[in-house]
Amino acid sequence: MSRSVLVTGGNRGIGLAVARVFAEAGDRVALTYRTGKPKAGLGCLAVTCDVTDAAQVERAYKEVEAAHGPVEVLVANAGITRDQLLLRMAEKDFSEVLDTNVTGVFRVVKRAAEEMVEARRGRIVLISSVVGLLGAAGQTNYAASKAGLIGFARSVARELGSRGVTCNVVAPGFVETDMTRALNDKQRAALLGKVPLGRSAQAQEVAAAVRFLASEDAAYITGAVLPVDGGLGMGH
C-alpha cells in the first residue's frame, strides 16, 4: 500500500538513497532540502525546509500534506557537522549542531506525531551515527547530538507505542558519501582499519535498514538502535 513518506535532508547521500528506496517501492515520497535542490527524475516532491526554523517546518508539512496526505513514515535525516577539537570549538559551533541535529528532529517528529497519533499508526526512523556510541575526537558536538537522538527516540517510543506508532534509530558507520570521499588515502585507511568487515557502506545499505524499520515486518520493533557500521560499534 502506498504511503506518504517524508525524508528530511533528502537531497544527497543517505537521505537521497532513503528517498529513492521508498519511491521505488511505490510510496508517495517527499524530501526536504535546505540548499542544493535534488535533480529531477527521482519522482519525489522536493520541499525547501530549514529544520532550525519552526515556521519553515510547518510550511513544509502543509505542502507535503496537500500533495500526499498526512505523513505516515518520517525519516529524520537532516543534520550538520562543525568539527573542531574541544578546546578550539566555538560555542556557536556547538549550539548550531545541537539545534539542527536534535532540536530540528524534535520539530519534525512532533509535527508528524500529531497526525500519526490521530491515525493510530506511523513509523518514525531517526538517522544517528556510530559516533554517537563511540565518540570521536574533534566531534564533541556531533557525537553529543547523535547520542541524544537515542534517548529521544526511546522516549518517543514509550509515549507513542500504545497508539500504534514506532520510533527507531539507524546508526550508520563509515558510509560512502561526498563527505567521506573527500578524505585522503591515509585517512580512509585509518578509518577502514577499525571496521571488522574491512570496507565502507554504500548509502543504499543504510536505506535498506531504514525501509525495513518502516515496514510491516518491523511492526513489533520500537525503541531499537540498528547499527549499519560493518561491526565498528560492536559492544556499544
Automatic annotation (TrEMBL):
Annotated metabolic or biological route of this protein: Lipid metabolism; fatty acid biosynthesis
Documented EC number(s): 1.1.1.100
Domain of life: Bacteria
UniProt entry tagged with the keyword Oxidoreductase: yes
An MF annotation (GO) of this entry: 3-oxoacyl-[acyl-carrier-protein] reductase (NADPH) activity
Ranges for domain Ketoreductase: 3-178
Keywords, in A-Z order: Fatty acid biosynthesis, Fatty acid metabolism, Lipid biosynthesis, Lipid metabolism, NADP, Oxidoreductase
Family in the record: Belongs to the short-chain dehydrogenases/reductases (SDR) family.
Self-association state and partner proteins as the record states: Homotetramer.
Function: Catalyzes the NADPH-dependent reduction of beta-ketoacyl-ACP substrates to beta-hydroxyacyl-ACP products, the first reductive step in the elongation cycle of fatty acid biosynthesis.
Name this protein carries in UniProt: 3-oxoacyl-[acyl-carrier-protein] reductase
